[in-house]
Every structure is written in C-alpha cells, then in structure tokens.
Amino acid sequence: MMNGSLQSQHTKQDELTEKLSKGQLFLAIYLIILLIMTVYQDFPLVNMIGEIGRTPIILLFPIFVFCEIAMLSKHKKLMYVTKLQKYLCAFIIYLSFVSMAYILVQFMQSNYSFGSENLLGKAIKVLIYFVVILLYVRHMQLVFSKIQSYKLLYSCFFAAVTLMIVIMIVELISMPNALTFLHSGNQPYWRVRMLTSESSTTGSIVVVYAAILVYLTQYLKRAAKTLSILYASSFLLFNLFVTGSKGFMVVILLTLVVTMVKFLDFRKKRNFILLIVVILAMYLFIAYFSAGILNSFNNDMQNYTSAYTRIGTIIISLATVFHHPFGVGTGAYLMYFDNYLDYSISLMSRFYYNVFGVSEINVGELMQYSGSDKNVGVKSGFFQWVMFGGVFSVVFFYLLAKNLITKVKSNLILFIALMFVLLSLLFIALEIKYEVWLLFAFISLFLGEKEMNHSNRSGVIK
How is 168-187 classified by DSSP, letter by letter? Predict the structure, then answer.
C-alpha cells in the first residue's frame, strides 16, 4: 500500500513537472514573439490604419485587455503594480483632462476640426498610444514574472538578438532592396535599419537588447558568460559601424561622458579602471567617427533639411508651453502647432542671420506642416510629450528618470543603457518605441521588487 502510494505521488509530481515544462516552453516562445514584435516598427499595417499600425503591438491590444480582465477576475485587484505604471497611469489621466479642456475651448470658438482631422477624434487616437504603452508595460512584466528561470529568460533575449543579427546581415547582402516586403514601403534604402523605418531608430533597440542580454549573463557559467558578453558587444559594434546614424553616434558619446562623470571617484580601483576604459572609448570614438558626423552635420547645414525641421518643431513645442504651461492636450495641439509655425521659422531666420550671416534659410520641409494634419508632431519624444502635458510632463519625466536611475545605479550595464535611452528621448519619438518601455519595465521588475504589491521573482530558478 505504501509503495503504491509513493509511486502515485511520484507519478503526479512527474506529471506536474512535465506540465510546468510545457508551460514554460510556451511562455518562452511567446516572449520571443513579443520581443520581435517590439522591434518591428515599420509594419505594413500603417498603410491601412495610420501611424498606430506601424508596429504589430497594436494587434496584441485584445490580448492585453483579456489578460487584465482575467487577472482582475482571479485576484480581485490589480497585480504587478510598479511606480512606472503609476506614473504612466497618472500621466494618462492628466492628459485626458487637459485634452478635453482644450478641445472644449476650441469647440466654443467653433473649431471642431483641423484639416481633415476631427479634434476630439485626434485626441482619442493619440491617447490610445498611451493606453497601449501602459498595457504593454504591464503585460511584459506579467510575462517576465511567470518565467521561472533566468537562464530561460536569457535564452529568449539571445534568440531575439540572433534574429536581429541575421536580419542585419541579410540587409547588408541585399541592399538597397533588402526585405522590402516587411516594410511599409518598397523604396530602396541604403542603410541598415532592421525592422524599422530608418537607421536612426535602430540605436536604442540595439543598446536595450544588448544591455539586457549582458545583464542576464550573470546567471551563466563563467565561460558562457564571457562568450555572451562578447556576442552582445559584437552586436552593438556591428550596428555602430554599419548604421550610418549620426544621432546614434552623438548619443553614444554623450552617454560615455555621463558614465565618466559617474565614475570619477578615483578612490576605488574598479572605478579608476572603468574610467580609463571610458576615456579610451571616447578617444577612439572621436578619432574614427567625428569626421563622418561633422560631414553629415555640414550637409544638413548646407541643405537645410532635417536639422532645421527638428529644431523648428522643438521651438514650436517650447513656444506652446510658454503660452500654455499646463500643455494643450493630444487633440488641440494641431491648432497650436500650426499657430506657432511661423514664429518658429521667423526665430530661426533671425538667429541664423545674426550668428552666421545667412539671410535666407530653406525651411521647405518644415513648411509642409502648415495647414496639414498629416504626421504633425515634434521631432523629439520628450518635447512632444511636453507639448501635450506642459509642466506636468516635465515632472513625469523627472520622477520616471529618478526612479529608474536609483534602481540601476549599482549596475553599470543597465545604467549605461538607461542613460543612452534617456538621452535618446531628445531625438526619437516615444509612442511606438516599445523597446524603451521594455527597458523601463525590465528595470522596474528586476531591480525594483520592493515597490511591487506582488511578485514571484523570489521563486525563480537561477
């Protein structure tokens, strides 16, 4: 009887172990799919439903909602709540009120639309971006928390990085018509862009994925850890040499400077060595890349293209916030963007005349936004959100950065990645850059367990 009982217990344990293994395998495959979808930022769906369809993440919206309902039904309360989520939720609520207030002001002046865009409809569409970001963060943290092995988690990121390297190699071989069927347009493209619309948007992807991969190597054996670090470093350097993005290179240089300042404490031998390494990296960077960057900037200055457009839109954002300190919301901003367009052009014209003696500048690209409702926005994620939410947006970014920096201050790799991403916010859009929110979610979960009301990370098998 006893032997039969023990055999029955062993059978049940084996069945449970097999069931858990199958569940973990499914989660791993699902996470790899999520990681690939995160970096896919030129999805052809954009041609049918607009910018929100530029990433396939929008297709997961029903799954995000279903998981939220299922968890709420099971636990009777919200689970896996971090400060990151609280900040995002508060920001969305604030934007909703400001957006409705400014739309009401425009409605009272009989302004119901701008171009072909209904102001209320525009506000709701933009707010959907923020809601999807919040749900994405919660969903990624849920999936991370359900994976019971750090090594399995490492394998997922390793698979995603490997696929990206393969895509980069294919692009180099078949350029300029590389994998056009995966992109929203079939025009020739002469740079490595992976699954994004242009090379300038790949930098943050590479840094985030390489940094997380290196962070997870701490759970590997020494030889595997060394090889993995070399693999991730090669991925980063490969992209650095083939991307051709001056913004990516400039942000790397700024990140190295910030890192150097952090490790100026010479009393610690480890910090002194790291400081020497950073200074050497800065020297090599300036020696090998500065000429190309300067040539690229000179080309911008001579042709008055992207540099003027970026600066001009940032001036529009600052002018808007100066007159409307609490922001103008996600719908009426179209009106104010158009209102301050002439002011921005006038200010730049006076500046270049007084400083460089240039009497006329070509702002044709910027002027395309006049009276238009197509792709209107600030060419900077930070300043776009500041235009939306004014002073509250500045507070949001401050609290967000402070919270995340506090968590990573003891981890060099994630600190560098976080600094790079935070500096990149001055150059990249935020609404579909889900790798940014992936890094924030990862840091909040793995380096901020004390702030969560529930986590099963303590049960993770290393």
Answer: HHHHHHHTTSSSGGGSS---
Q: For residues 69-84, b (16+ Cβ closer than 10 Å) or e, as one string?
A: eebeeeeeeebbbbbb
Tokens of 246: 């001056």
User: Which residues make Cβ contacts (< 8 Å) with residue 230, sequence separation at least 6?
Assistant: none
Note the pTM of the prediction, 2 decimals. 0.87
Residue with tokens 């217990």: 9
DSSP string, 97-163: HHHHHHHHHHHHTT--EETTEEHHHHHHHHHHHHHHHHHHHHHHHHHHHH--BHHHHHHHHHHHHHH
How far, in Å, CA of 439 to CA of 213, rounded? 11
Residue in 286, 203, 187 with CA at minimum distance from that of residue 243: 203
Residue with tokens 């003696």: 357
Q: Are 151 and 220 in contact (CB under 8 A)?
A: yes
pLDDT tens track, the chain, 462 positions: 445 554 454 454 555 455 557 778 899 999 999 999 999 999 999 988 888 899 999 999 999 999 999 988 887 777 778 899 999 999 999 999 999 999 999 999 888 888 888 899 999 999 999 999 999 999 999 999 999 888 999 999 999 999 999 999 999 888 888 888 888 888 888 888 888 888 888 889 999 999 999 999 988 888 889 999 999 989 988 887 777 666 677 788 788 777 777 766 555 656 666 667 666 766 666 665 555 555 555 555 445 456 677 888 899 999 999 999 999 999 999 999 888 888 888 887 777 766 666 566 666 667 777 777 777 888 888 999 999 999 999 999 999 999 999 999 888 899 999 999 999 898 888 889 999 999 999 999 988 655 554 444 444 555
CA distances from 216 to 232, 358, 412, 442 (A): 11, 52, 13, 11
Burial class (CB in 10 A: 0-12, 13-18, 19+), 9: exposed
List CB contacts of 391: < 8 A, sequence separation 6 or more: 321, 325, 326, 327
Query: What is the rounded distance in angstroms from the CA atom of residue 199 to the CA atom of residue 201?
Result: 5
- Long-range contacts of range 397-403, CB-CB < 8 Å, 24 or more positions apart? 397/425, 399/83, 399/87, 400/84, 400/87, 400/440, 403/83, 403/84, 403/87, 403/444, 403/448
Q: For residue 300, how many other CB atoms are within 10 A of its CB?
A: 16
Q: Provide the 8-state DSSP code for 332.
A: T
CA distance 184 to 42: 6
